[in-house]
Design goal:
Layout lengths: L4 H8 L5 E3 L6 E3 L1 E4 L9 H14 L3 E3 L7 H14 L9 E6 L6 H15 L4 E6 L4 E2 L12 E2 L3 H13 L3 E7 L3 H10 L6 E5 L7 H10 L2 E5 L18 H10 L3 H11 L3 E4 L4 H6 L10 H8 L22 H4 L5
Parallel strand pairs: 3-4, 3-12, 4-5, 5-6, 6-9, 9-10, 10-11, 11-12
Antiparallel strand pairs: 1-2, 7-8
Helix pairs in contact: 2-3, 3-4, 4-5, 8-9
Length: 332
């Protein structure tokens, strides 16, 4: 029997399950690939190479943001993957990007998305998110000072997001880092409800209240920092060094990362995981043909909870959010 290179590729490529996105009729791959490398913009060639390899091993959802400065290398990687025949069409991919705080003004949303599309070399993205429930003085970049922080115009910015979807420049719209009260405020005036809320979620920050709320409202959750984002300014080593996860991993012959990712997957949410290491890229996809038992899930539920991404930089006496409780609606 003759095996060509494409059939060999199929054998080594993992097929990632998908979940429906609310009532949109669209779906989202349940495991995605993150491209945020800190300091932002410092490793564009590494991003490009890693994305091409990620496509090769089976990743189809790629998560970027204006502020990550990874849109251009991601776009170059997509073009290269098409040239190499790793994918037949851009439509096989699911691309998420995010609106930067300094562009979170009604009149700046559409131009910001158009810039992201230009950076990516794409005609549309699959999901566009408001990165945070906050705004900065128009055009402010990163880093910023507390004097630049302004309250978010929920209604005006969301109307502009809806316009982006209606124009076909993004297939779906959503938010990131929105706690329950902020979602309620947005839903009060939204004509198109957010399809997704991308938030920190892992065994050390399980977000039960927010998950219940989003489930009731038909909002799909995507988990960022599913491994705790060790090595970033917002991350901790609490997941990777968690004793409970280590014991379960040893008993199952899996890595702590795999146990953590499998736990997130078993919560019925999607996740975005970042590793530019080729072996770990594959390891992070090896979570679909085994499961955590009810007893193991119960042990994980008992893990002390700690929010890693606290974003203290957004809190001050003179800013819209006076305290962390204020910013996270008491969910800290």
């Amino acid at each position: 029997m003759h095996l060509d290179s494409s059939s060999l590729k199929m054998k080594t490529m993992v097929s990632i399950p998908e979940a429906p996105l609310g009532s949109t009729g669209k779906t989202i791959p349940l495991v995605g690939f993150g491209t945020a490398q800190f300091p932002f913009g410092a490793a564009t060639e590494a991003v490009k190479e890693s994305v091409v390899h990620a496509i090769e091993v089976g990743y189809r959802h790629f998560d970027t943001a204006a502020i990550y400065q990874s849109e251009e290398p991601l776009g170059e990687a997509i073009a290269q993957a098409l040239r190499l025949g790793l994918i037949k069409s851009r439509d096989e991919l699911f691309i998420t990007s995010k609106l930067w705080f300094g562009h979170a003004h009604r009149q700046l949303v559409l131009p910001a998305l158009q810039t992201s599309l230009k950076n990516l070399g794409l005609e549309y993205i699959d999901l566009y998110l408001i990165h945070f429930p906050v705004s900065l003085k128009p055009g402010t970049g990163f880093p910023f000072s507390k004097e630049d922080i302004e309250p978010l115009d929920y209604e005006g910015v969301w109307e502009a997001m809806e316009e982006c979807q209606n124009l076909g420049l993004t297939k779906s719209i959503g938010v990131s880092n929105f706690a329950c009260k902020k979602l309620e405020r947005l839903l009060a005036t939204a004509k198109i409800p957010p399809a997704v809320n991308q938030v920190e979620l892992n065994p050390v920050w399980q977000q039960k209240k927010l998950r219940d709320f989003c489930e009731k409202k038909g909002i799909h959750i995507t988990a960022y920092s599913p491994l705790g984002a060790k090595g970033t300014i917002w991350g901790t080593n609490r997941v990777m060094e968690c004793q409970v996860l280590t014991e379960i991993a040893n008993a199952k012959g899996k890595s702590v990362a795999q146990v953590s990712l499998r736990w997130v997957y078993q919560q019925g949410v999607s996740l975005v995981v970042k590793s530019f290491n080729k072996e770990r890229m594959k390891e992070n996809l090896d979570i679909f043909d085994w499961e955590l038992s009810a007893e193991e899930l119960q042990k994980i539920e008992q893990i002390p909870q700690y929010r890693g991404s606290r974003s203290e930089v957004l809190v001050s006496e003179d800013a819209p959010y006076k305290s962390l409780e204020d910013l996270w609606d008491g969910e800290i």
